[in-house]
Structures are given as C-alpha cells and as structure tokens.
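Subgroup meeting minutes
Present: P.N., E.W., G.H.
Scribe: E.W.

1. P.N. recapped why we're keeping a running log of single-chain structure predictions: easier to compare across weeks, and new members can see raw inputs and outputs side by side.
2. G.H. added today's entry (143 aa).
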Amino acid sequence: WSTQSGWYFDLPGPISGNTPSERVITSPQIENGGVAFTTYAPPANGSLTCNAAGTAFLMDVNYINGGAFTQPRLGLGSGGAFVSVGGNNPVGTQLNGGYAAAPTILTNPSGGGNIYTPGSNLQIPVTPEQYGGRSRLGWWQVQ
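Output recorded in log:
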C-alpha cells in the first residue's frame, strides 16, 4: 500500500481558449464492486454562466483499478443488451439532456438492476446494469 496511490481519471481538458473542462460534480455511488458517477462538460461556447446546457456522461468502473470489468456491465446495446464494443467492455455512456444528477442504483437479488440519472431536461434515463448478484460475505454459526 505504501507504493500505490490509488487510481484516477484524466478527464478531457479545455479544447481551446476558455472552454471549461469536463468534471465530476456529484457524489459517486459504490455498489457491487463498481463506482458509478456522472461527469459534466459545460457548453463549449465559452460561456461560463450557470445553465442547464452541456453534456453529461454516466461512468461505472471497477473500484479496484478504475477500469473495465471482465464482462460487459452496462446495457448499452439495442434494447439494453450487454455488449462489448470492439472487444472492450464499455465503462461509460453519454446521457441526454445537459447536466445529470448523481446516479441512483436499484438492484435486485438475482444480479443486476438499473442506474437512474435524472437530467436537467426533467427526464430520467435508465441504464441497465448487470453483475454476478449478491452473495454471502460471511456467516456466524449460532448454537
């Protein structure tokens, strides 16, 4: 542990001039081995005013290394199918509607669930999520 400082994301910086950079402005959610969070890139028109424009992204990464999972975790394919893209498992997707609030994760016992990310356009995109399901972490024998 003394030689490793953890992991981080290098989010895209300004494209030119005073264009604001992409940033994380909500609290991450930790669930079933993943860290889900949204990022926000203000509009590229150079305006630094507070408004609902811009672009948001949903990210869901492995909390051990900040990278992809061994199997597709986000349902980004047609009809919410869990697919790889170019042999890689995606860790994020662009959301519609400008700014997005922190993700809310609703799970089910059989594995998987949905990630809800309310946007500034008053819509709530739903992204399917899959994982191996809940399992016992420990037990105590009572006599």
